[in-house]
Amino acid sequence: MCQAQRVDPALPLDGEKAGIALATLDQAPLNGLRHRPEAGTSGWYIWGGTALSEAPDIFDPLHHHHLPEYCPAALPFLALPPGWRFLIAPGQVDIWFDPALLGDGEEARLP
User: Fold this and answer.
1) pLDDT tens string 51-61
2) Apex 89 CA angle, 52 and 33, nearest 5
3) Of 16, 31, 6, 12, whose CA–CA distance to 82 is shortest?
4) What is the rounded CA–CA span in Å between residue 15 and residue 12?
5) In whole angstroms, what is the distance from residue 40 CA to residue 49 CA?
6) Residues 7-16: pLDDT tens digits?
7) pLDDT grade for 103, boundaries at 50, 70 and 90
8) Which residues of 40-78 are buried (b: 16+ CB within 10 A; e: fewer)?
C-alpha cells in the first residue's frame, strides 16, 4: 500500500495498541485512520459501518498482534504513516491522506 501511495512505510512498533471498535467489525465498510503514535498506541483507529459512534467507549485497545484475528482485512494498510485513512467495502478500496489527522497543519510530502 505504501509503495502505491508513494510514502515511506511506518509500521506499528512491537507492543503498540490500536483502537478497534470490536462491536462494529461485522459492519461494512471497514474504516481506518491513523493519528500520530502516542503513549503506547500506534495511532490507528479501526471500525466498521457508515457512521462512527460518538460513544466515548466505542474503541477497545488491542495489541497489534491480535489484529489478524479480529480484522485481517486491515492488515495491508497498517504500514501507512500517520495522516492516512482507508475504507474497504465490497468492490471498493479507497486510500487517502487527511492532513487534519496530524493535528498541526502539516501537509503531506507527496510527489
Assistant:
1) 988 888 999 99
2) 45
3) 12
4) 8
5) 26
6) 999 999 999 9
7) confident
8) ebbbbbbbbbeeeeeeeebbeebebeebeeebebbeebb
Contact by Cβ (8 Å): 55, 75: no
**Which amino acid is it at 71?**
C
- Helix (H) / strand (E) element for 4: namely helix 2-5
Q: If you compute the radius of gyration of the chain from its CA atoms, what whole number of angstroms results?
A: 13
C-alpha cell belonging to residue 70: 479480529
Q: Are 85 and 31 in contact (CB under 8 A)?
A: yes
